[in-house]
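Open question from group meeting: does this chain pack into something compact, or does most of it stay loose? Before anyone orders reagents, we agreed to write out a predicted structure and look at it together. Recording both the input and the output here so the notebook holds the full record.
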Amino acid sequence: MTKSALIVGSSGIAGNNLATELLRQGWTVYGLARGAKDDGSGIIAVAADLRDPASLSGALADIAPTNVFITAWLRQATEQENIRVNAGMVKNVLDVLSPKKSVRHVSLVTGLKHYLGPFDAYASSGTLPQTPLREDQPRLDLDNFYYAQEDEVFAAAARDGFAWNVHRPHTLIGKAVGNAMNMGTTLAVYASICKQTGAVFQFPGSQAQWQGLSDVTDARQLAKQLLWAADTEAAHNTAFNIANGDIFRWQWLWGRIADWFGVEARGFDGAIHPLEPELAQYQELWKRMAEQHGLVESDLNRLASAWHTDLDLSRPVEVMTDMTRSRKLGFTGYQPTEDSFTELFAQLRADRLIP
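Structure tokens returned:
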């Protein structure tokens, strides 16, 4: 049977890289996003508002995918609103597709907030789990929109009989514009501003992050695990952590990022230096840099998500993920983390997103 994928959130880091992998493997790929447009990539654009069942019903009227990959979320002011909106979007998509009886597998992408807690209680002293993080660790006794999204998938699977997987990446590294969580591009923008102004490339985070072990997830690595799990029956109906497969310390990586951009690095100096207020003062400078260097995006906020980078780099605990569950079932993907960053930086430069 021909495999067809509906990627919910196809314009984001996870969705866009997944689409590239699925197209390479010969799948028919529908990309669902609010502003989806055909771009010649091979993705069939599906424009709809995930919050509006009527909008989804019209957009999906003639589409009956075998696989659904849910990679989208919308940031809200409170966790209760995150639950209402983001669980609602998952429910809306699966309810609209239910009468078609075409869906055989659903993949949901969440993340390490499953273990660390929601944004408004993130990595607080009362909720710090043991690391490395393992998939069998219980849910925290906190409201968390990831749990609500999972529960919508579980309920629809029980109703419609499809298999499912949940994938929990660490910080995603990959190209996207307008993405709400984008550390790689945020650091590229920060380093580019340091280069332009002669400022020092100051590590913005905590001592625990500077000195502790960490890992990240290349979006291409996530895409490979998503496809592997969907195609591997023994892997169905469970959750998987996904990271690059190596570990590092920021005190090693920070200087190497600085060297790539030709700026002076400064490590943890006893204080946290949040990037959000730091980058906020450079909005007009970035517009001038875009004009000077012929960049295609002059809105710094469309590239950088400093609030999320601050959240990750200020954590009071080292964070890394265990991948034993997928390794035992045969997933062997591996990606060197330094390459994840430098290949992204090169792509951003080639695409004229940074100077």
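Observations to bring back to the group:
The radius of gyration is 20 Å.
Residues 79-97 form the longest helix (19 residues).
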